[in-house]
Amino acid sequence: MTTQEGARRPLVAILSGAGVSTDSGVPDYRGPNGLWRRDPEAEKLVTYECYMNDPEIRRRSWLMRRDSPALRAEPNAAHAAVARLARSGIPVRVVTQNVDGLHQAAGLPERKVLELHGSARSVVCTGCGARSPMAEALARVAAGEPDPACAHCGGILKSATVMFGERLDPEVLGQALAVARACDILIAVGTSLQVQPAASLAPLAAGHGARLIIVNAEPTPYDDLADEVIREPIGRALPALLERIAAGRTGPREQQPG
Hints:
The active site is at residue 117. GO terms for molecular function: histone deacetylase activity, NAD-dependent; metal ion binding; NAD+ binding. Its EC number is 2.3.1.286. Keywords: Metal-binding, NAD, Transferase, Zinc. By secondary structure, the chain is of the alpha/beta class. It has 2 domains: 1-26 and 75-117 and 168-258, Rossmann fold, CATH 3.40.50.1220; 32-72 and 120-161, SIR2/SIRT2 'Small Domain' (2-Layer Sandwich). It contains 9 helices and 9 strands. The strands form 2 sheets. It has a 6-stranded parallel β-sheet with strand order 3-2-1-7-8-9, with helices on both faces. A hairpin with a 5-residue loop joins β4 and β5. It is elongated. The model is unreliable at 1-5 and 251-258 (pLDDT under 50).
């Protein structure tokens, strides 16, 4: 069955977590083999207070960024499927907990992606707020600067990601909340739905009448709230699900009375 001509197409919101990028070689953090479970000390490298107060933590953080597979990763079948759905004419918005930029690399326009936790592809000065490409900072590290300072004011540079102990960008969060309230379908994919406030988007969307679909290997706190739970591998399950939506087999929510 295809979407009837003239029928309103559903607004599809995709809340993506680390599991979407594991097929690209980007490790997750909280899964059974996640980084935080394997090396709890690694969490200090992305904790704001530790980072700002300890030069050794910063030096280790720069080495972690240098060696991170996220900046060398390529989009996988799941990222490509989301971009393909957007090209089909279905209104799509992605709210991602990931910082790897792979949704955009797959061809999804920047304006359709809300990066809740920032981007690992840029650095920001904690003093003056100047931003620059991560590649430039890593080139300085490779040239022998273990803790490169801001070229404008000499302040401490950090990845333009949200570290533990930092607030999310209120503008980005506000847009994500608006998407959750307005969408017809919310697909939570590759996320444990345990990290707030991102996890709250799932019940918020369901409470406003959206169809909630969860695609994740492990159980989440909101499985009982979901209209559909899919446990199959994301690289296979998400493309199949989005093809079904593109074909009109999951339509927009019914308009609420009043």
